[in-house]
Design a protein that fits this description.
By secondary structure, this protein is α+β, with helices and mostly antiparallel strands. Helices cover about 35% and strands about 20% of the residues. The strands form three sheets. The chain has a five-stranded mixed β-sheet with strand order 7-8-9-10-11. A four-stranded antiparallel β-sheet has the order 3-4-5-6. It has a two-stranded antiparallel sheet with strand order 1-2. The chain starts with a helix and ends with a strand.
Length: about 260
Amino acid sequence: MRKKANNNRRLGAGLMLAAVIFAPLLLMTGCAKLTGNYVNSNKNIKAAIKYLNERYDTEFDYLEDKPYAVGSGNVFGAHGNSVHMYVTCKDLPGKKILVVGEEGSGTFSCNYTAMKYEDEAYAVLDGIAKSVYGDSAKVFWEGHNGDRLGDLEKDAALDDFLRSGHLDFITVLTDKNDDMMGDYRRFINALIERGVECVPETYHYSEAALYADTDKLAYRTDLTNEQKIGRCMTSVVKDLLGGDFNFDTDTQFQETFL
């Protein structure tokens, strides 16, 4: 009986010790909550929201976590200073804004500007593409279809965003194939004239019906090479608006591709 009582006392002492050790660790995570495979602590969420409110002089609200691609699975704060989440903004109803960063760094990055000018930028790109390739042309850009960060200062205008380079890849799907490289030259010239900094490319198909229902970036994989006539693209990474871009030496045509 005495031996059993001693064992019980040891077990109780062990549990108390575990509580003493682990309770502070859990508190250090800022009451961390697990969503998917990533940890966003309430403390760091509040820090990010406060930073955004002050930077853009408007009101942001937490929406949901964005699970991190390299999961932590660690509730003891290994990733407790990082933020990887979506927020909403009262000035941009219906828009889902990505925020990333570390509380300790004092700054966070987001795609607030990209979301602010998303619809206007798309209208500009769509208008330029259709002026060259006709009404059947379809336009995609990575900022419009993904989570590319592109935050500028709060007073940035649409033209500032178009010139910033945050648009990155601009892709046109088209069935206009009579002068592919000639049209590509005209497309790039129109982008430069409008002041759009990007990496433009065009995918050519035998008929518009092949891509009419294509969504997001599926055009890269959802059609066979036999259905794609070719691709016009830049061969080097140069700014269109920097003055160094030369169409004759910096572009190429691919007849077949993956």
